[in-house]
């Protein structure tokens, strides 16, 4: 946790708060919200504070590190002491909140927000036809980055289909010091992106939906098994040598792309800023590019489908008082994604999931990438939430361990499926 602010009528008080004390936040005299530290979160915290000052309301804002937040929010919600505004990645966590009546429907309390937000993002906050969460920050699709110098050197084109991918792998097979795809297998989570895209391209968005909804035996889906088999094949020929020794913590996977050790890297949109910051020579060389995930020719998935993080989302606590809920509704319907905050996000290279903002990209350092990511999101038939967030929180550890075994070659796809079905 970095900052704790309680604001009213333009005054700001900074107070220290321990994690043990956070469980009492839901019971204070004003509305409350918890945000994360780092990344684009300072813009969100600033926005909440401006809202409190401009509207003469009390709003307690806590900033926590990611892991601390995940630990504390479940405890607070379970005890009925959640903050008024509850942040989630939607998916399995939001589904649990709805099933346990911990959050309230937002229909009628979001103003014109639905019309402003890309539908592929908005639908992630809808459960059984009702809105329970709305996006609050930037959209983060997973994209395919590439090194044009490597492609030119080996006569390669950007892959539009999976057959193109197989040809690229065959061309680079046996080439010293160059592989098709960089992967931080040691961190495991970058492989989630491969599993999500391959499953979707093979079976469409419905292939994974049964898992999200907790259907018995849902993991035993032909598309999931095919995706796991394909990942193992890529591990044998396609991924960077010794990929299980590569981690994302220090951006080692991005460095392999920048150094020309790999032609491609499948990663989140946040890596665009990382490469510009950490590897400026590569970023400015004209060889750094980005494209969408290839089409599987015989797959059932819509080629426009994307995966990643549609955004973080706000829900409103059912345990908050009526007055606290009204403050939250006012913020969501009248203030969220206001011009000042949107400009602040764009200047930082973050993409709000909003319709008709293309003209505002002009002149920003990330104009080309923002335009690409915006078109990718706007045209998506479906935006699949990252799997580690989409599944039930109780399954996360088993999921990561099972996929690690796949990457290490110590288990089979059916072993993975059996492990996850047992959860």
Automatic annotation (TrEMBL):
Keyword annotations:
Signal
Q: Does the keyword Signal apply?
A: yes
Coiled-coil stretches are none
Keyword Signal annotated: yes
Known InterPro entries for this protein? Answer: Bact_solute-bd_prot1, SBP
Gene3D superfamilies registered for this protein in UniProt: Periplasmic binding protein-like II (3.40.190.10)
Instruction: Name any one Pfam family assigned in the record.
Output: SBP_bac_1
Question: What start and end residues bound the annotated signal peptide?
Answer: 1-23
The name on file for this protein is Extracellular solute-binding protein
- Give the species this sequence originates from: Nesterenkonia alkaliphila
